[in-house]
## 1
Amino acid sequence: MKTIKGPGLFLAQFVGTSAPFDSFGAITAWAAECGYRGVQVPSGAEALIDLDQAAASKGYCDELSGQAQANGVCITELSAHIQGQLVAVHPAFDDAFDGFAPAHLRGNPRARQEWAVEQVRKTIDASANLGLDRMAAFSGALAWPYFYPWPQRPAGLVEAAFDELATRWRPILDHADSRGVDICFEIHPGEDLHDGISFEMFLDRVDQHPRARMLYDPSHYLLQQLDYLENIDIYASRIGMFHVKDAEFNPTGRQGVYGGYQPWVQRAGRFRSPGDGQVDFKGVFSRLTTHGFDGWAVVEWECALKHPEDGAREGAAFVRDHIIRVTERAFDDFADGGADHAANLRMLGLKA
């Protein structure tokens, strides 16, 4: 067993144009003041990191790490969620996802996809230059418009989508392997990798690639009504990252899992700040610790009700209180009377 690292904070929901959220130095100092020991950095946030420099220069990465450490935190991982999303986009979502790409690429899906692949590769290189062995990403989605089987899906449609998804990601995974970096796909609705079975379908097509791992976020599983504790038992060897995000699901006679197109506040299932929802985090931390998870517990603030700065401050204390410092001895060692082979035989009524 290992003691989970933390608390960490994912900065994607906080970076902005006003202080202290508009520069790497200021936001890391703020995170430390909130009680965090680490920060997860979105690689596309230009206010926080120059990805081109980070991918090409270890010296630049050393300076960035040094600045974080001087402010009391370390960089836990880089995230390429947005860029990973653009590796595979169904045409139905072209307009919606064009905003994730630079303006000069909008309206050009092929160029946008090529840019996204290069961005993910640069995030891999930057991670290696920072001395990190894992990063986060979305998988993107080609089959998602067909997740509900009506109209009836033509035979082979989903298989063709996953074949293509694997074809796009396999070279990226191979590059990650060459740099010693795992790609932890956040298992997330809206992505083709949205639950355990879909993740397995992808793994089969990339030959169980050792660099393809999971970012575990129980909030997405609770909203799908998936057993998020058993999921840890099944996929422990593939879980490389952990987001601490809460959720609640309160179905009514009028709406359930699909939410009736309502805004987040009015949905039966909605995200909450850690401790305000229904996720059994004592169980989650216990299962991850039992299975030897060696990564960070990183708060991802997404809440339909609470102010983000309050959620951040409370989240640091919440994670700190849930981390289990693993024991180095058994609780009943005091009663150990010692034994040897001959004594064991005597206790069994056997002759030595």
## 2
Amino acid sequence: MSERRAADYVEAVFREEWGRLLATLVRQWGDLDLAEEVASDAVASALQHWPVDGVPTRPAAWLLTVARRRAVDLLRRDRAYAARLALLQVEADRAEPARLDSAPLETDDGEVPDERLRLFFTCCHPALPLEAQIALTLRCLAGLTNPEVARAFLVPPATMAQRIVRAKRKIRDARIPYRIPDAEALPYRLPGVLRVIYLIFTESYAASTGPELVRDDLAEEAIRLARILHRLLSGHREVAGLLALLLLIDARRAARTSPAGELVLLADQDRELWDRALIEEGRALVVTALRGGAPGPYTLQAAIAALHDEAASIATTDWPQVVALYDVLGSVAPSPLVALNRAVAVAMVDGPAAGLALLDELAGLDAYHLLHATRADLLRQLGRPAEAATAYRRALDLVGNDPERSFLTRRLASVSGVSDCQMEPFRGQDGL
């Protein structure tokens, strides 16, 4: 194998196996820093040896063996690591103590067991700040480097590196257990994990700042993380609901911006560009998630997204059913955002005046640009351009990314008499 092909293969294995390798090493050694260091050394060793020796039959097991040997060497040479390991052996998970002479963590057929579920719950532990949970999940489970995670947050790499270091220190000093919550605690801890993945995807769907509306890299990582979690917890309906939601929304990605990068509203999107394979996969997951009891908030949002994806146009969308689903969602997980999206759906059923009346009752979203943009659009439809212009200006004061800013600027011009451009009504969050 050529050096270039070997490097590409190592990269592919790295992307697929990094989280599993890291999780297995953390389980064995109880130290995230040590696990990251030896996992990186194993990848570097693969880049050196695979072009010469060929790719092993079980590359993940090869990486684990190399990493484990490197960990043994470090622990024997480094007194600080050795002292930390001794402490962990006494006070950590006594059922699975780390040992220098323990056998490689592999199954009988040489495969590496999947320990990532433990890592999910460690990275998303409620004792950590939410931003740290997201950063650690991207770093440890998605395999992003510190600079890549920094780009996701639009902060300097040094800032993100410090943030991750503090999160790891918190895990160590608070002795956050590296384990899956028991059956009684799982229902309380799982929503935190789902929320982290959802927030990663939300940032990809409409970037908070910057020149792009959609962050393809974050969308793909969020979906990959959701797929991993679904494989590990296939029996949990709300996990299926989250994956369904992400797939059904992401299916529209290619149509959400023009070739020039401008925002394209749901009403104007070329539905031929929607990914039908993702839609069908998402719809099947929704059916599964809706069976067996009251649906959770992600499942309900996925059902709404499915109605949008199934419709041939805005006009043929089953808006009464969308409103009904928002009614259920509002009872299960009430929030101002749910109320905002419900108001948009009501406006499609009963007219802009009905939607505007609901918006006027909302509280807690004054700093959210889409509230003012939606209100401006309803005012525009009602023939109240001066009030619409005021609302568009408020939205422009709050908006972050450039495509939405450009869109709102054009809308403001249309109601201010500067331009006669006419566009379709603003549709909130496209059913999110």
## 3
Amino acid sequence: MIRPPPLAPGDVVRVIAPAGPFDTARFERGLAVLRDRLGLRPRFREDVAARARYLAGPDPRRAAEWLEAVQDEEASAIFCARGGYGAMRILPTIDPRPLLARPKLFMGFSDVTAIHAILNRSGLCTVHGPGVAQLALLPEEALDHLRSLLFGEAPRPKGDVLPEPGAGLAGTETVRAGRATGPLLGGNLTLLSHLVGTPYLPSFDGAILFIEDVGEAPYRLDRNLTQLRLAGLLERVVGVAVGQVTRCDDVEADGSGLDVVREAVLDLGVPVVAGLPSGHEDSNFALPLGSRATLIAPAPGDGGVPRLLFDEGATA
């Protein structure tokens, strides 16, 4: 796997909208965070705020925007404005080879899982992290964590203590005890299930699978996980890291969405940690997809907290 160079103050960052439209006020506040807090120089097309129903403009606009960002020789990174829906519509136009020859940091989450998938499959590490329109909502500790990942400042993780910013994340519970090491892959559960059967998913052989989701009823979470199981994907992973499962409960009928996820992965026979602070909540901590990580799920009495350690980080 190729890890891009770390960012440095003053670097140009291309901002794109490959999926859905965004709130312009939140976008402007996010641009201010890039400039004033991270010291970066955002650059974007004049039509970045385009809207075509639920898309950030028609497919040709978003495909051309991606290509321009890749070809911008001054840009060190490509950040997405937000997710929404639409990234998978332009997957056939995305050629990963230029980014393998001259790697740039790529960051986004949610629907942008589709682009992470094709880049990870091709051998490029990426950052599952907040969109620009979410940056101003991050708590200070999440922004510090992001800065450490992007600028290559994270220390080496230590196995017996809480991860320092950029070195890993602590979860809230062990679902199944154990320890596993492998490339960290995944993203939004719904998007992963919809990419099954396409040529864009990476191989999950020996991987730690990260999943998160938002606004899905418990039965739809079940359906997405069942799809991954029937496709043979779940049986290939060495561990499962569960992030935020947000607004996925049906109190009157089907109960907790997280309960459904726990039940679906419990019998895989691999370590499972839940409650990682990454996903569709304001406290959205970034993850280095494609890089090697270690999942530690302590059994009762073992001591320590459930955690995901970034063995390689996001950058070279």
## 4
Amino acid sequence: MAFPIHRPRRLRRGETLRAMVRETRLAPADFIYPLFVCEGRGVRREIPSMPGCHHLSIDTLVEEVKAARDDGVTGVILFGIPGSKDALGSGAYAEDGIVQRALAELKEKVSGVILAADVCLCEYTDHGHCGVVEDGDVANDRTLPLLARASVSLAKAGADLIAPSDMMDGRIGAIRKALDEAGFQETAIMSYAAKFASAFYGPFRDAAGSAPRFGDRRSYQMDPANAREAMREIALDVEEGADIIMVKPALAYLDLVREARSRFDLPIAAYNVSGEYSMLVAAAERGWIDRERAILESLTSIKRAGADLILTYFAREASRLLARSPRS
């Protein structure tokens, strides 16, 4: 009987050996933690479609970010839940907007954490679209000055990273120009460069109250079938001055994370979005999958595909799991 010459199983004999030869390593520094900040005080209200995630008032947000930092998370991204909305999304660029106030408070009270701020109008408009609506359509060029204004106000408040998620054409160039002219040349832009019109955003829209009141976002977010167009969108954002590029969602688009990694030298982020989070949580609650293993496996797949940064609602939990796991 012939025996195999090559025996890959030799390096799988025990967790310590497996960890020693592991090719892809997760670390808490890979994670950016998305958080929803709302008006009020003492608010920590669980989001029904995203169990374990909460609407947080500024005071409880500060405590959450401190706790995340203690778990090893070094980056957060803020989404605002304003007290009122209007057609032009003025809460997005108000000097006393909810995210602007939250950033100022975090900058004063929490050190050692990079503060990113999402830039979009959808959470602040009464129609739920990501820009100014004219004749039933989102007006690209009328929206750009408002996105630039929001970016400058967030940088003034203390944002380290400006993260435009609107998918308007030319917005990175408009934001970079506005930031530079306002004296924020050192403020970086993390662009949602390839953001798809995905079915996996449902729980987020519930959390942020940002579902469009009419139509959908397929005229500005990308067709999920288009890979070459995604690379073109990324290339345009790089040309316009993006410092970090993002693919969103992550798990259904790992091929594009890999393709972006092979083409572009900038840091690449991928957003493990709300639907991906909630599906895993729901399956784990029913006992269909092992929650802890599934969290680390899914995040490892995003890192293995080529992402340098992962936006994930599992950031704190995954960091705690890594602290006690040889997987890291």
